[in-house]
Amino acid sequence: MDAAKSLGFLSGLSLLFLVLGSLWAHAAPITLPFIAGLFLSNLLLGVLLPKVFPKNPFFSGFHNGIQEFGKKANFAVVSAALVAVYLLGVGVTWGFSKITGKNFLRMKATGKSSWVDVSQKKRNFEEMF
Predict the structure, then answer these.
(1) For the chain, N or C: smaller number of CB within 10 Å?
(2) What are the sequence ranges of the domains in the chain?
(3) How far is 11 from 58, CA to CA, in rounded Å?
(4) Distance (Å, whole) CA 20 – CA 28
(5) How far apart are CA 69 and CA 12, in angstroms?
């Protein structure tokens, strides 16, 4: 049932917007009963009732809609976190290397060969490292 799936998706989306809006407006105490009610209705319609009535198309569609919303929200949050970590990690390292003039990969050609002639004689352990 596509209508129930869409209703489940919209219910998950409305819960997200309600939570984010209350955090943005610093109105969590005012909207807390609405958030709790919507969360409990999502829990009841999307998790508990599909387990009790597995053949009911409305409950299974609602469950699939909430599940689809969760996957999309998870993808968005993980992608944003990875981009932030990449920009912070690589950006800070790049800035540090530019400020200090450090070359971490040593990719520039020095004109000489990088070949090191290793003699075949026995060396002790400290010389090897």
Answers:
(1) C
(2) 2-100
(3) 14
(4) 10
(5) 6
